[in-house]
Amino acid sequence: MSKARLKINWTIEDKNWKTLKFDPKKIGVASIKKTLEYIETIDSSVVEISTLLSNDNKLQELNYNFRGKNKPTNVLSFPSGSPLQGEKHLYLGDIAISFQTLYNESQEQQKTFKDHYTHMLVHSILHLVGYDHERKKEAALMENLEKTILKSLNIKNPYE
Predict the structure, then answer these.
(1) H helices within the chain, ranges in order?
(2) Which residues contact 138 (CB under 8 A, 6 or more apart)?
(3) Tens digits of per-residue pLDDT, 54-78?
(4) 61 φ, ψ to 5°?
(5) Which end of the chain is more exposed for a tag (fewer CB within 10 A), N or C?
(6) Angle made by CA atoms 140, 129, 109, in degrees to the nearest 5
(7) What three-state secondary structure class fits 20?
(8) Residue 138 dihedral angles phi and psi, to the nearest 5°
(9) Contacts of 68 (CB under 8 A, 6+ apart)
(10) Per-residue pLDDT tens digits for 79-111
(11) CA distances from 156 to 42, 113, 149 (A)
């Protein structure tokens, strides 16, 4: 992946994202790049992702429309379904993140918002490339990879 150029389309839909003491785009780029370094199956010159930084209302709407769940959630990932081999331009998919849910979870879990946001980006990128956590074995594989990537970003294990 290190040879590929990363293109991230950012949409900031909720003003709360602009009140943070860090730049969510800058942290996002670093988190996504680091995650993709661990995904060896990507062989493209350009890797593209769209990221929506929004709120509970929007995430509830998306969650209902695409998953039939009428409640907000922290992050949703929508893989493009493109193969990972041999394309010059690979569109991985879309990510949507709710400020309110992330904020509430970070408070409940006694984590910084920045660390929790980074974790959710890593988690969602892994979903875009095919990782899942529906079964115990898959969940363990995905969580171990998340912990490794987060450690490389100086973020402690979010599952402790």
Answers:
(1) 24-37, 56-67, 99-108, 113-128, 136-152
(2) 131, 132
(3) 999 999 999 999 999 999 999 999 9
(4) -60, -45
(5) C
(6) 50
(7) coil
(8) -65, -40
(9) none
(10) 997 655 556 778 899 999 999 999 999 999 999
(11) 27, 13, 10
